[in-house]
Write a structure and sequence with these properties.
17% of the residues lie in helices and 30% in strands. The chain is of the alpha+beta class. The strands form 9 sheets. Strands 8-10-15-12-13 form a 5-stranded mixed β-sheet, with no helix packed on it. It is globular.
């Protein structure tokens, strides 16, 4: 689950990653588009202000009515997801208007969102410096730099005409909104001055237009609007009971389809429709979205740094009773680990739970996931943890079902007699071992001296489940296997970079025991080379959990790495000159279920890893690299 933070509290690295992701979207175009992905968001915001339905004009689909908050929640969520397609670590930050000092001294600076317009950032006018100025490479599409469609263009530079910080909203203004007891009192207070409207007015220039998303501060501004709504919802105003009553203009009622996520139920006004529809590309695709669909912001996959903290899960305490009350809901727990060791997190009860472990000290970094490793359809994760704060997410395996469960965390007995790992030698004799007690997990370690394909196998009469971690990181999951070996044994065949790896072995049934042998061998396979702009390389995921590694050499520039064929692929790009430094990942950006990464690269050697989206899936594919 992503954490949206106050922009002025971001570290320098978090700030730079965010700015880089925004500028990447400005320079990225989808196939067949005449504008950038970033500018598609500008076009969408322009189109929503003047809609037509069944031959009749209807209200603005996103402003001045009850749908103002849900429409913009969906809008900035899609923008955040676009940023994460560039860098998965990025979450959208918010601009807290009540922090007057840091607004000027931290947020509106050349290092972050840029200064006021005018020479030397003084006096207002075209932005002269910073990442979002023309000098910094940020060019506004003139046709999209208008107050409304058909209006005169304001040119290719962002314009800002900032007012004194003393004119910004104050906490008492925010409290006036938060103290409203009904949605029909809350949203108008939040949308109007001195809050949302005043933020646009205070920045001025481009932010005064309906094409205001041309200025990236728009998204931080609206993230703060969404944060205040989330805070109001958390203050006992959650759910559909705290939305506007029926009788709103179309698009603003609880179950109305919001444009453009309405499968063409509404359209931009005649004349504009022909202009704007081709610009929306994927932003108008997908399922219908209604205000009801976005009321639970946590279910959308994010939270705020001021949101109520997760439920505390205490090691070796009694199990907590809880319930998944809403379809698709993920309930988050906080787990504080004081001492390094092996721990077990598991669920109990009749509900088919799915558990995700995040951390350490990071609510978006996935360590492990489990579906049915516990009793029947319960989840169980057993892993070694270092001291730190971890987070446990629990959801129903089915996105449409709910149900009760219990959850607990406990210290776990070490299955290797106190030695947390046994060393395996690549090509050495199999190591004989046993799962001597119910729930035992044996850990092994081996060194891959060079890059290549390695096979880790178990043999014997026991039904084994095996997990591989690394390189050089005991919590970085590579893959998991159950029955790819002989009979019910586990087998992992994977292209690995040089480094140290860790293998966990357990019985498929957490209540059973048994003997087994484990070995590691090298398959002696070189890394295939992909020629940039050459023929695609044909590949085949022939076994469950297999991942294939390729390499190519890039000069500085923009590249597309993509797969072809019938297989649901998952693509990872690593480098430069490193097989472990992750650059980008992608699942389904290509056609259908294929993968596609578009990335600006510095010169160097890069590595491409291809696997099936499903750990049990197999199938042929092609992979190619081309320069754009």
């Amino acid at each position: 689950m992503g954490m949206r933070k106050n922009a002025v509290t971001l570290t320098a690295q978090e700030r730079d990653k965010f700015v880089n992701a925004v500028t990447q979207l400005k320079n990225r175009r989808r196939d067949g588009s005449t504008i950038s992905v970033y500018d598609e968001f500008v076009a969408l915001h322009l189109g929503v202000i003047d809609l037509f339905r069944n031959g009749t004009g209807i209200e603005d689909g996103a402003h001045l009515n009850a749908g103002f908050l849900p429409w913009h929640r969906q809008y900035i969520l899609l923008f955040e997801q676009a940023l994460q397609s560039v860098d998965p670590d990025v979450s959208l930050p918010y601009w807290d208007w009540t922090d007057h000092a840091d607004t000027r001294d931290v947020l509106f600076t050349d290092a972050f969102m840029g200064p006021d317009g005018g020479p030397n950032g003084i006096g207002g006018g075209a932005l002269a410096s910073g990442h979002f100025s023309e000098a910094g490479g940020w060019l506004v599409v003139p046709e999209l730099h208008v107050s409304s469609w058909g209006g005169g263009s304001s040119g290719t530079s962002l314009i800002r005409e900032m007012q004194p910080v003393s004119n910004l909203p104050r906490q008492e203004d925010v409290d006036l909104a938060l103290n409203q007891t009904s949605y029909t009192g809350f949203w108008p207070t939040l949308e109007s001055s001195p809050l949302h409207n005043w933020g646009h007015i205070w920045v001025g220039g481009t932010m005064l237009m309906m094409s205001s998303p041309n200025d990236p501060i728009f998204f931080l501004h609206h993230c703060n609007v969404d944060r205040i709504w989330a805070q109001w919802q958390d203050n006992e105003h959650a759910g559909s009971a705290f939305y506007a009553p029926p009788g709103q203009p179309f698009g603003h009622n609880l179950n109305d389809a919001m444009w453009p996520w309405d499968q063409r139920g509404s359209n931009a006004v005649p004349g504009l429709e022909q202009i704007i529809e081709p610009l929306l590309q994927e932003l108008a695709q997908g399922p219908v979205v209604t205000p009801a669909d976005v009321l639970d912001y946590r279910a959308l996959g994010y939270t705020y740094d001021i949101a109520p903290g997760p439920i505390q899960l205490v090691v070796d305490a009694a199990a907590l009773d809880d319930r998944i009350a809403d379809a698709g809901q993920e309930i988050i727990y906080q787990l504080d680990i004081a001492q390094a060791g092996r721990y077990r997190i598991e669920t109990e009860g009749s509900t088919d739970t799915f558990v995700t472990l995040y951390g350490p000290n990071n609510q978006s970094n996935v360590i492990a996931r489990n579906d049915d490793g516990g009793v029947v359809t319960n989840a169980r994760i057993i892993t070694d943890l270092d001291p730190g704060t971890y987070f446990v997410g629990v959801r129903h395996f089915s996105p449409t079902e709910i149900g009760p469960y219990r959850i607990l965390a406990a210290t776990e007995a070490d299955g290797n007699g106190g030695d947390l790992r046994t060393v395996l030698t690549v090509g050495g004799a199999p190591v004989l071992a046993s799962i001597a007690i119910a729930g035992e997990v044996d850990r092994y370690e081996f060194v891959a001296p060079t890059s290549g394909v390695y096979s880790i196998d178990t043999t014997g009469p026991t039904d084994i489940v095996m997990s591989l971690f690394g390189p050089n990181d005991e919590s970085a999951l590579v893959t998991v296997d159950d029955d790819s070996g002989q009979d019910f044994n586990a087998k992992i065949v994977s292209s690995l970079s040089a480094g140290t790896y860790f293998v966990d072995v357990r019985h498929w049934s957490m209540a059973s025991t048994g003997t087994y042998a484990i070995s590691v061998r090298s398959e002696q396979q070189n890394i295939p080379e992909i020629v940039v702009d050459g023929e695609q390389v044909e590949g085949d995921i022939a076994a469950a959990n297999e991942s294939d590694l390729y390499t190519f050499v890039a000069e500085a520039g923009s590249y597309v790495i993509e797969t072809t064929g019938p297989t649901d692929t998952f693509l990872s790009l690593l480098g430069p000159d490193s097989e472990t430094d992750l650059v980008a990942v992608d699942d389904d950006t290509g056609p259908g279920l294929l993968s596609r990464i578009e990335q600006n690269l510095v010169a160097g050697r890069y590595y491409v890893r291809v696997r099936h989206f499903s750990p049990f899936g197999t199938g042929p594919y092609g992979v190619r690299v081309r320069r754009t």
